[in-house]
């Protein structure tokens, strides 16, 4: 007899059922992109208002990204403990409240503190959203759906660029934060109607709730009704300060190879991406572009990423997650180096930064889908959260290090070469140490030595 979680993964995909979860989860991801992209637009504006040095300007992005690093691991652990649904809403509420506080900041230090706190809230969106959407999605389309989730990133980044450029006419950077938060608060209200993850309920042993959600899914998708049973519940640890350390230890015990690959990929991919995204407007302004022109070139880079996500969603089930990541990531880094080399040639520079925007959005959605599939249900949100945290911590210091050390002393081309080489090394380690996840059911992927305990 099949178990409840197997029933969920074998259901037909319906837009009015699982698709609704995809849309609501994706909109939260959109605000993550909007907020991260906004750092790049705020740097020249906030820096000019408070007359900041290049190193100090880097803290605009660093404070926010470090907050996201904390939020990714904290909310991933919380979601594994209190459930996806509650964490799903609370992350966005925290982000909205502290973003509004940041818009009212009287000085730069206060501004950075509120950007850090807003980052904690928003940092939880990605691991929680991916865990929830992935656990509602049938196995046969999970790769496409999880990869397609990333289409919300370039959408959010592009909206950020268009709206930020339009708001330049008001000469008030605080409006950029306020306008971003208003739709986020509306989404918080909508998220309250999302059901709890059936796979989470199954693993928690909440039989009555699990049966209610699963039976509703079967009915709404029009699937054939068949008998099923609930597996034995898995005891979850209570939320304590040491729980976060235990979860990291459990991830490494589950599979050191998988965890090291996940962390290495997240770190290097986002070193490349956040380094470019955060500083591109400032690079272009220094090159002689006005704020509006610099904002629009950055927007072009993010907008072409929408096409990249669509192509990635197709490719991951054609050639596999590992091939997409292993090819597109290093090529994106190469495009970024060529952009820096030909920065003085305006047309060539625009072509290369556009190519980077397309290639990196082949990599990122495939990476999100891949890492979210590598861990079993009991570790999925925290596994993704820890990997995201590693990337946010590493990439979080990029704005400060980039502005104070790398760009001034190495120059742009060599800076991008260094982080590109790191990405190539991580891709090679993935090829050697981690399994392909295409077409396999959740909880049936991972280290062979641990599969028996997962089931």
Describe the structure.
- The structure is a single chain.
- With 455 residues, the protein is mostly helical.
- It has one domain (2-231, 243-454): MFS general substrate transporter like domains (Growth Hormone, Chain: A), CATH 1.20.1250.
- The chain has helices at residues 4-9, 18-49, 54-82, 84-103, 108-123, 125-136, 139-148, 152-167, 174-191, 198-204, 207-221, 241-254, 256-286, 291-315, 321-341, 346-374, 377-396, 398-410, 412-433, 451-454; strands spanning 2-3, 228-229.
- α2 (18-49) packs antiparallel against α9 (174-191), α12 (241-254) packs across α17 (377-396) and α15 (321-341) runs antiparallel to α19.
- It is a multi-pass membrane protein.
- The chain crosses the membrane at residues 21-46, 58-78, 87-104, 116-133, 145-167, 173-190, 256-280, 292-316, 323-345, 351-371, 383-407, 413-432.
- Residues 21-438 form the Major facilitator superfamily (MFS) profile domain.
- InterPro entries: MFS, MFS_dom, MFS_trans_sf, Sugar_transporter_CS.
Distance between the termini: 15 Å
One letter per element, helices H and strands E, the order comes to EHHHHHHHHHHHEHHHHHHHHH
Main β-sheet: number of strands, strand sense, barrel status? 2 strands, parallel
Uncertain spans, ≥5 residues at pLDDT below 50? 448-455
The chain-level mean pLDDT equals: 84
> CATH fold name, please?
Growth Hormone, Chain: A
Rg from C-alpha positions?
A: 21 Å
What structural category arises from helix and sheet content? mainly alpha
**What is the name of the CATH architecture?**
Up-down Bundle
Number of strands: 2
Task: Identify the CATH homologous superfamily.
Answer: MFS general substrate transporter like domains
Please give the CATH class. Mainly Alpha
Percent strand: under 5%
Q: Number of helix segments? A: 20
Q: Can you tell me the number of structural domains?
A: 1
Shape designation: globular
């Amino acid at each position: 007899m099949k178990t409840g979680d197997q029933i969920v993964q074998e259901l037909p995909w319906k837009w009015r059922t699982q698709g609704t979860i995809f849309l609501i989860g994706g909109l939260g991801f959109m605000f993550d992109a909007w907020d991260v992209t906004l750092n790049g637009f705020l740097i020249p504006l906030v820096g000019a208002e408070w007359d900041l040095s290049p190193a100090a300007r880097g803290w605009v992005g660093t404070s926010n990204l470090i907050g996201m690093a904390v939020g990714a691991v904290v909310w991933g652990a919380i979601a594994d403990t209190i459930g996806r649904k509650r964490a799903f809403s609370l992350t966005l509420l925290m982000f909205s409240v502290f973003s509004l506080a940041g818009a009212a900041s009287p000085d730069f230090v206060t501004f950075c503190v509120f950007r850090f706190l807003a980052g904690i809230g928003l940092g939880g969106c990605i691991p929680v959203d991916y865990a929830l959407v992935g656990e509602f999605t049938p196995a046969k389309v999970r790769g496409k759906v999880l990869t397609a989730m990333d289409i919300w990133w370039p959408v959010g980044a592009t909206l950020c660029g268009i709206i930020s450029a339009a708001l330049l006419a008001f000469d008030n950077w605080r409006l950029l934060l306020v306008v971003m938060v208003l739709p986020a608060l509306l989404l918080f209200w909508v998220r309250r109607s999302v059901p709890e993850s059936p796979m989470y309920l199954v693993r928690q042993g909440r039989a009555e709730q699990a049966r209610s959600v699963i039976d509703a899914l079967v009915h709404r998708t029009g699937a054939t009704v068949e008998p099923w049973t609930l597996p034995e519940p898995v005891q979850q640890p209570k939320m304590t300060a040491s729980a976060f350390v235990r979860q990291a230890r459990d991830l490494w015990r589950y599979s050191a190879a998988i965890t090291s690959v996940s962390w290495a990929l997240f770190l290097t991919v986002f070193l490349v991406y956040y380094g470019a995204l955060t500083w591109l407007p400032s690079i272009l302004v220094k090159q002689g572009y006005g704020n509006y022109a610099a904002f629009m070139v950055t927007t072009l880079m993010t907008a072409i990423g929408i096409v990249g996500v669509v192509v990635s969603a197709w490719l991951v089930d054609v050639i596999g997650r590992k091939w997409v990541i292993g090819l597109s990531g290093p090529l994106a880094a190469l495009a970024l180096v060529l952009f820096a080399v030909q920065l003085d040639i305006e047309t060539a520079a625009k072509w290369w930064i556009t190519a980077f925007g397309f290639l990196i959005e082949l990599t990122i959605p495939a990476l999100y889908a891949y890492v979210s599939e590598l861990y079993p249900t009991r570790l999925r949100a925290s596994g993704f959260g820890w990997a995201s945290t590693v990337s946010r911590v590493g990439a979080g210091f990029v704005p400060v290090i980039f502005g104070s050390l790398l760009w001034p002393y190495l120059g742009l081309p060599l800076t991008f070469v260094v982080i590109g080489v790191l990405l190539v090394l991580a891709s090679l380690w993935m090829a050697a140490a981690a399994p392909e996840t295409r077409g396999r059911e959740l909880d049936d992927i991972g280290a062979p030595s641990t599969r028996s305990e997962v089931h």
